[in-house]
Amino acid sequence: MTYAQGSTILAADYNGLVGTNPNTTSGTLNTVWSTGGTSAGYGQTAVSQVSVGATVAATNWANLINNTANAATHQGTSITAVTAPSTGNTITYNSAIPTNLTTIYNSRLNAASQGSTTSNTATFGSTWSSALTFTFTATFANGDAARYFFNSGGQLAMTVSHPTGTGINLLLNNLASNVGTVVMSAPTSGTVTISSTSYSGITKVGGGGNAPSPYLTNNGYFALTTSNANVFQQSASTGPSGYLSTNIKFLVKSNGTQGSNGDAGSIITIYCLWTEIPTGLTASSGTATTLTARPPESTNISNTWGAITLAGSVTGS
């Protein structure tokens, strides 16, 4: 690539900055902006390359510069401002362009804001004294749709509740409150910043009580397999003597890779298990679990993840 100060800007230089599609190379726009692969790619319309030997027009450069800026704004990432050239003006080397492309790649899983949420709640309508199993699914049109959702800052969040009371009911009410909100984001390592909050792959937000164990923070969307992973378990911290092993846990899995671009599945299944240990005390009806989809914002990027179907059910005794 010869894109450098003092050099003639060639089609190959521009194409190297835009990148092919699909592409997973850092420092190319389409890796982040379009199809990408695995944890890169928002699914936006790819910026076209130009034919070798052809003139790189001002409109080509404007597409590169403006979409880089749109990606940065979506992420909440600070980049060096670059003014898109006007038709008829001489295009000169600008060192900020490749630097900005690297910056948006490194920050690709961050998101400054999110869209409107949708939720599904399952409620057990009877008393119980042993265990409940809540089963939820989040279904996407295909693997890439799920990938674009999480890559663009989408999340799945789980909350739980139980009516207050005395004895085992007070224990379950406090336990549910201590769980807080358990959020699934994209990462399999490290953290991302979404709506000004830092998240790992699995993150407990709020709540209290005992430290969760297990608590598999690196089991975000891209860690999903067709096998259940017990990613989070919260045990009771207050309540009737001998019942503090009572717990709420989350297990997650997917239907496995569906496409050729590194997705981790198009159907995500989340089990929420409420277990009374030992069994025998009667818990009141009204125990509930909610799955909430938090989609990416669609002002700076368009909705490429499509509709998400949430479903939930509960069994137990």
* Order of strands, widest sheet: 1-11-3-4-7
Total number of distinct structural domains: 2
Number of H/I helices? 6
Mean pLDDT: 95
The percent range for strand residues is 15-25%
The helicity comes to 10-25%
Low-confidence stretches: none
Spell out the helices and strands N to C. Answer: HHHHEEHEHEEEEEEEEE
Instruction: Describe the largest sheet.
Output: 5 strands, antiparallel
Calculate the terminal CA-CA distance, rounded to whole Å.
66 Å
Describe it.
- The chain is α+β, with helices and mostly antiparallel strands and 317 residues long.
- The chain has two domains: 11-106, no CATH class; 118-316, no CATH class.
- It is built from six helices and twelve strands.
- The protein has a five-stranded antiparallel beta sheet. The chain has a five-stranded antiparallel beta sheet with strand order 8-9-10-2-12. A two-stranded antiparallel ribbon has the order 5-6.
- Helix 3 (58-75) packs parallel to helix 4.
- The chain is elongated.
- It starts with 10 loop residues before the first helix and ends with a strand.
In short:
The protein has 317 residues and is α+β, with helices and mostly antiparallel strands.
Q: Which helices and strands occur, and which strands form pairs?
A:
Elements: H1 11-18, H2 29-33, H3 58-75, H4 96-106, E1 118-124, E2 131-139, H5 143-151, E3 155-161, H6 168-179, E4 181-184, E5 192-194, E6 197-199, E7 202-205, E8 229-235, E9 247-254, E10 267-275, E11 287-294, E12 309-316
Antiparallel strand pairs: 1-11, 2-10, 2-12, 3-4, 3-11, 4-7, 5-6, 8-9, 9-10
Helix pairs in contact: 3-4
